């Protein structure tokens, strides 16, 4: 039988990113490959630990595909982590079970200059590009492949503190106490991210997303200089090389500063967290282009009528423009896989 050929422009995620208002929003979910899925836990156990999974192209591709098989999401996101880039730059990286990441820290000019040159990062990141390549061959043809990296500020907060922090205090302290080292580190991460995302695109990523998970802890001029500008620089460099590859920017916690972010960053789509109301997003953000979001991930734990009503409310509020349905942040390990199916069913019948 002749296989129906789906052109890239028929992929719903790419159509939304190009600015099209679709009758039903396409959907994917942050951390869709993760610990809430028994099949993920099984593959992770086979890999040994989280980082071994990230650097094993066959198994990383397998966990990326699991939520696509189970749910038929419209996009797959490469399975990797934003902290692989610091590791590729020479930082030590390990994960403490139940606690999160640990890294060697960068706080001085000497530590900054001891990082590897950008051209060396691909030695470490090669397996990630291989994962992308496998996925671009194995994904269903209607599924869009998203590559990603962390935004410089967010990655810097981990490199400076050596771990996740509730308030990013060590990064704020370095910013005040040694601006040259702080800005030098952002510059290295910015250049590394451009190189890293370029290789992901070369390997087959059709969209890239920049995660600025801690953007919300910057305010005023700092928000502009350290969240908006580095992301804008990455977008500009990628657009120059790959004018047709859409970029999603996620300045989490930006609040009112989400307004104007399309123009400020040059991104095709702004992902919004659940700290802003969908009706507000429609009026002040979606008027400028595609938006992605923003169901609170707690609904994946609680489910029921609350999940259905809130999903419908978000779909309705954002139905007048380009919208990709997603959570406001990653799904948590305690989520019930049945609630994910309920969310998808609700979106597709909205
Ligand atoms: C800040 C950040 C990190 N990583 C990431 C961010 C930005 C997004 C966000 O704010 O959540 C991004 C990320 N991390 C992971 C992905 C894969 C793709 C996806 O499914 O979204 C993506 C896009 C896998 C992962 N990254 C991590 C896991 C869990 C690891 C495990 O299996 O034990 C997964 C599936 C580990 C990780 N990685 C990181 C932390 C703080 C942790 C520990 C917290 C936790 O355990 O959830 C750093």
TrEMBL record:
Keywords for this protein? Cytoplasm, Decarboxylase, Lyase, Porphyrin biosynthesis
Role of this protein: Catalyzes the decarboxylation of four acetate groups of uroporphyrinogen-III to yield coproporphyrinogen-III.
Q: In which pathway does it act?
A: Porphyrin-containing compound metabolism; protoporphyrin-IX biosynthesis; coproporphyrinogen-III from 5-aminolevulinate: step 4/4
What is the reaction catalyzed? Answer: uroporphyrinogen III + 4 H(+) = coproporphyrinogen III + 4 CO2
Q: Does the keyword Metal-binding apply?
A: no
Which enzyme class, named as a word?
A: lyase
GO biological process assignments:
protoporphyrinogen IX biosynthetic process from glutamate
Q: What is the lineage of its organism?
A: Bacteria, Pseudomonadati, Pseudomonadota, Alphaproteobacteria, Rhodobacterales
Name residues in a coiled coil: none
> What is the name of this protein?
Uroporphyrinogen decarboxylase
The site feature described as Transition state stabilizer is recorded at 81
Q: Which Gene3D superfamilies match?
A: 3.20.20.210
């Amino acid at each position: 039988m002749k296989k129906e050929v789906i052109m890239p422009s028929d992929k719903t995620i790419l159509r939304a990113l190009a600015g099209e208002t679709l009758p039903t929003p396409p959907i994917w979910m942050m951390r869709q490959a993760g610990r809430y899925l028994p099949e993920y836990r099984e593959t992770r156990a086979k890999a040994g630990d989280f980082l071994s999974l990230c650097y094993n192209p066959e198994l990383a591709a397998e966990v990326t595909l699991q939520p696509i098989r189970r749910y038929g999401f419209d996009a797959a996101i490469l399975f990797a982590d934003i902290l692989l880039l610091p590791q590729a730059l020479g930082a030590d990286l390990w994960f403490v079970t139940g606690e999160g990441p640990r890294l060697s820290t960068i706080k001085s000019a000497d530590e900054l200059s001891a990082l590897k040159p950008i051209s060396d990062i691909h030695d470490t990141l090669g397996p990630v590009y291989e994962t992308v390549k496998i996925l671009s061959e194995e994904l269903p043809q209607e599924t869009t492949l998203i590559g990603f990296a962390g935004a410089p500020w967010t990655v810097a907060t981990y490199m400076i503190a050596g771990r996740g922090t509730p308030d990013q205090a060590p990064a704020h302290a370095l910013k005040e106490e040694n601006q040259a080292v702080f800005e030098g580190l952002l510059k290295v991460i910015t250049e590394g991210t451009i190189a890293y995302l370029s290789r992901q695109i070369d390997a087959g990523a059709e969209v890239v997303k920049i995660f600025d998970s801690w953007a919300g802890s910057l305010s005023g001029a700092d928000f502009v200089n350290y969240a908006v500008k580095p992301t804008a620089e990455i977008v500009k460099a990628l657009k120059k090389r790959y004018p047709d590859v859409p970029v999603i920017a996620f300045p989490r916690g930006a609040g009112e500063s989400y307004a104007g972010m399309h123009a400020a960053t040059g991104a095709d789509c702004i992902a919004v967290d659940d700290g802003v109301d969908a009706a507000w997003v429609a009026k002040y953000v979606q008027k400028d282009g595609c938006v992605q979001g923003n169901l609170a991930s707690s609904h994946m734990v609680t489910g029921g009528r609350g999940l259905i009503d809130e999903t419908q409310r978000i779909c309705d509020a954002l139905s007048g423009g380009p919208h990709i349905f997603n959570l406001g942040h990653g799904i948590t390990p305690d989520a019930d896989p049945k609630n994910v199916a309920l969310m998808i069913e609700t979106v597709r019948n909205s």
